[in-house]
Amino acid sequence: MLLKTNEKLSDELAKLQAPTAVGGNAKFVDELATATKSLSNELTKLQTQTATEAEKIELLFQKHLNNSEQCELFKKLETCAQANKTNEAQKLQIQFKNDDYTTTTTESTPRPDSCKAFGGNPGVHEIKVPGLQHFEVLCQDDSSAGRGWIVIQQRIDGQENFQRDWVTYRDGFGSFDGDFFLGLRQIHHITHSQRYELYIYVEYFGGLWLGARYDNFRVGNEADQFKLQSLGEYHWTKVNNDKMRYHEHMKFTTYDRDNDLWYENCATDQETGGWWYNKCAYW
Ligand SMILES: [Ca+2]
Predict the structure, then answer these.
(1) How many structural domains are present in the chain?
(2) Do 263 and 156 have their domain in common?
(3) Which SUPFAM superfamilies does the entry link to (predicted)?
């Protein structure tokens, strides 16, 4: 009796539970399927996005590599340009300085007649010497030779062509912030206005330098073919090398005016520009 009652109860319980359980599982399975599908869609989307982002990253990476390569190339070019410049920076400066400073007052605005007045203040200044209107010169101080020098030739960066004709050497050419030649006419008038020292400064690639001084530098006029009339006594710093003596008393030569003692034209043969050539040779 008791057992029967239990069986009945069990059956009823099964009846009650079965539909509920079956119905509940089916709903759960449906929801699970929907959720899975939704997640799958999300996953597909994310995968697509990831692929797109990866492509973008790849492109950026490639671009960066290209930029790096370009930077490397630029660095190499810069280094190369610098090396060339250093090789060209074989300096040759020729300066001269007067013994005494006097002020000329023939123009309305008085100007010094040399760079001596600008010692301690190097740079481009105007001077006035007898026989010429005032003109600009580059004044320079030198740690070894002292202050107040007029620079008459500067060859420092190889940017200027020194293979120039007679008239160009007579009047001067180039730029004070680079290579230049002051002009034979000015040099003549300056060196005839009072006594001047000539200072030649040469610096070689690698740092070796030498300085040569002559205490009475004079250049003749154009009728005299701007002859190097006098150098004076020689003094030197670092290296004893009186090379300029070879050119003393020589007339000036350019490719279109051969005044040298060589059977041909030194300015043309050596391609170093105009100079007071003897049988050629240059500093
Ligand atoms: Ca000749």
Answers:
(1) 2
(2) yes
(3) Fibrinogen C-terminal domain-like
CB atoms within 10 A of CB 74: 10
- Rounded distance from Cα 263 to ligand 1 centre (Å): 5
If you measure from the C-alpha of residue 191 to the centroid of ligand 1, how many angstroms do you get, rounded to a whole number? 26
Interval between CA 176 and ligand 1 midpoint (Å) = 31
- Residue 276 domain flag: no
CATH of the domain at 107: 3.90.215.10
Neighbours of 61 (CB within 10 A): 10
Distance of alpha carbon 259 from alpha carbon 67, whole angstroms: 58
- Residues of the chain where predicted confidence (pLDDT) is lower than 70: 1-24, 57, 61-62, 64-71, 73-74, 76-89, 99-107, 283
pLDDT at position 40: 79
Same-domain check for residues 70 and 54: yes
* pTM exceeds cut of 0.90: no
Q: How far is the CA of 279 from the centre of ligand 1 (A)?
A: 8
Q: Which domain holds residue 240?
A: 89-270
